[in-house]
Write a structure and sequence with these properties.
Helix content: 10-25%
Radius of gyration: 27 Å
Strand order of the largest sheet: 2-3-4-5-6
Low-confidence stretches: none
Shape: elongated
Order of helices and strands: EHEEEEEEHH
Oligomer: single chain
Length: 171
């Protein structure tokens, strides 16, 4: 979707609302495809005293796999975005200002795709207190106890016998 912003630049106080959906279903992210649903984008470009300001809200439901227990889960993701837009920059490039093309248009799909991807988390957990999987036996520690047999350091073996209940030792 392209927004023609030349008319808005001539209207101080004017606004141009927009809404679109960005399809990221073809994108692979850390070995998975979390973008089963499109990213919904709603926002506006407003002329504030001759400066064009873009505000947008991007949201979707991601289909993720927990990095600790490997269970699939879904999570809502919302990104709030604001930036200034310019027809040209006087002193080169700027990270805070988005440059419009030569016709005074903004390619919104590409910008919103980039904004959303830059806000993606690198670690996804089904819950903050997820215990994950036991590295020895593979048990899901959220559901069951570890099935690993605890190995006793031979240097401490005699001391462990002191902790055994009476009748439980072979003495």
């Amino acid at each position: 979707m392209k927004l023609d912003l030349k008319p808005l630049a001539q209207q101080p106080g004017g606004a141009l609302p927009f809404a679109l959906q960005v399809d990221l279903s073809d994108l692979e992210w850390y070995g998975g495809k979390p973008f089963a649903n499109p990213v919904r984008v709603k926002g506006e470009v407003r002329n504030r005293a001759g400066a064009l300001a873009l505000t947008a809200r991007l949201d979707t439901v991601l289909s993720l796999v927990c990095d600790r227990c490997a269970k699939p889960f879904e999570r809502e993701k919302t990104v709030e975005y604001e930036t200034l837009l310019a027809f040209e920059l006087a002193n080169g490039e700027s990270d805070e200002i988005v440059l419009l093309n030569a016709e005074g248009e903004l390619e919104l799909d590409g910008l919103m795709r980039e904004v959303f991807l830059l806000e993606m988390d690198t670690k996804n957990l089904c819950s903050e207190d997820c215990k994950g999987l036991c590295p020895g036996c593979g048990a899901d520690l959220n559901v069951e106890a570890c099935r690993c047999r605890k190995e006793i350091d031979p240097r401490w073996a005699k001391l462990s016998q002191l902790l055994e209940p009476e009748g439980g030792s072979d003495q």
